[in-house]
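Journal club prep, shared notes

We agreed each person brings one worked example of a sequence with its structure written out as tokens. Mine is Phasin family protein. I'm keeping it raw so we can talk through how to read the token line rather than staring at a rendered picture. Sequence first:
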Amino acid sequence: MTKAITSKPVTTPKEIIADVRAYSHKVYLAGLGLYGTTSQQRRKSYNEVVKTSKVIFKDLVKSGEGLEKKAKQLIDEQVKAVNKQINKLTATAKKTIKADAKIVEKAAVKVQAKVAAKKAPVRAAAKPRVAAKA
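Then the structure, token by token:
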């Protein structure tokens, strides 16, 4: 470090100017030292932030992967449940359609029989004709 400035009697203006220059130079050097120190601290802090941010980023990625896996599992479970319900409803609908088709077929046979019965000529016994009176 530097020597401490001691107060001594100054006798000439040249000595005063020399002391002022020396002190000014020390102030300049103190400023440089401050700049260097803060620069080192800034660099050190920056490196710590970079290191920490890499760790945080890795942790966030890992957490995101876990959440994505859980979400995919949940979606897969929901899709399976919906597909199961669709298959169940499809089977029920097929049974209902088959049962309704049988009912419609029976009704169609009855209707066809009635229609056929109406189309067949019904021959009634012939009535004797009465001659017209003159």
